[in-house]
Amino acid sequence: KDTSTVSVITNKYGEAPSVLYGPDAESWYYLFVYPEKGIAYLGNPTTGTLLEIWYFPATNLEDFIKKWATSYSPSLAPKF
Question: CA 37 to CA 57: how far, in whole Å?
Fold first, then answer.
């Protein structure tokens, strides 16, 4: 069982330069992206819970969103 947490990732890579919001944003789970390092994680910054870690070839944020995070956005969608 993997025991990684948000703090394990941030201790290793620092604070994520980009945060994306997607289907889990209402549950406080955001996608924290390090495009140049080829890693992202879906986690809750308040509880430290980590749902997923994504590994990918190093890229820029725009290409990352186009290729792997099409249902995510750099801004939180307003609720109507």
Answer: 8
Q: Among candidates 38, 42, 9, 40, which has minimal Cα distance to 23?
A: 42
Is the CB of residue 7 less than 8 Å from the CB of residue 48? yes
pTM of the model as a whole: 0.90
Rounded to whole angstroms, the Cα distance separating 79 from 70 reads: 20
The b/e string for 44-76 (b: 16+ C-beta within 10 A; e otherwise) is: beeeeebeeebebeebebeebbeeebeebeeee
At residue 4, the pLDDT reads: 83
Band the pLDDT of 80: cuts 50, 70, 90: very low
Q: Tell me what the mean pLDDT of segment 43-62 comes to.
A: 95
